[in-house]
Amino acid sequence: MKRRGFLKTLFLGAAATGSGSGIHAAPKKRLLVQKTIINGMAYYDAEKVVDQISYDDPVHLKREPGNPHDRAAVEVFWEEYKLGYVPRLSNFALAKMLDNGETVTACIAGINARKLPYSGLEIEIVWEG
């Protein structure tokens, strides 16, 4: 997908790209959206499970539009445990992508043992288009 098509999809949703027009789509592409730390680990379940988390483990991203502190909040879960949030300064585009139904995956991309269990986990977020 070219840049213009990606931006249309990002801000207007899949309907704006002409999906479903009967034209065969190209193979799916993967695009790194961002690499970021997880914020707020000290307040959630990270301390309980940090010893079990490994590099490249998948994490689940979930929108939390009702969050009173950040209307673009994106929660980060490992299995059923909430680890924290994608930082507020870098979550707006990701929130739009999730709201538009885009396929976004994430995994553990870095572990800084000196900062655990209160911070020190980095995730990689990928758009599957």
TrEMBL record:
<dbReference type="Pfam" id="PF08797">
    <property type="entry name" value="HIRAN"/>
</dbReference>
<protein>
    <submittedName>
        <fullName>HIRAN domain-containing protein</fullName>
    </submittedName>
</protein>
<dbReference type="InterPro" id="IPR014905">
    <property type="entry name" value="HIRAN"/>
</dbReference>
<keyword id="KW-0378">Hydrolase</keyword>
<feature type="domain" description="HIRAN">
    <location>
        <begin position="31"/>
        <end position="129"/>
    </location>
</feature>
<keyword id="KW-0479">Metal-binding</keyword>
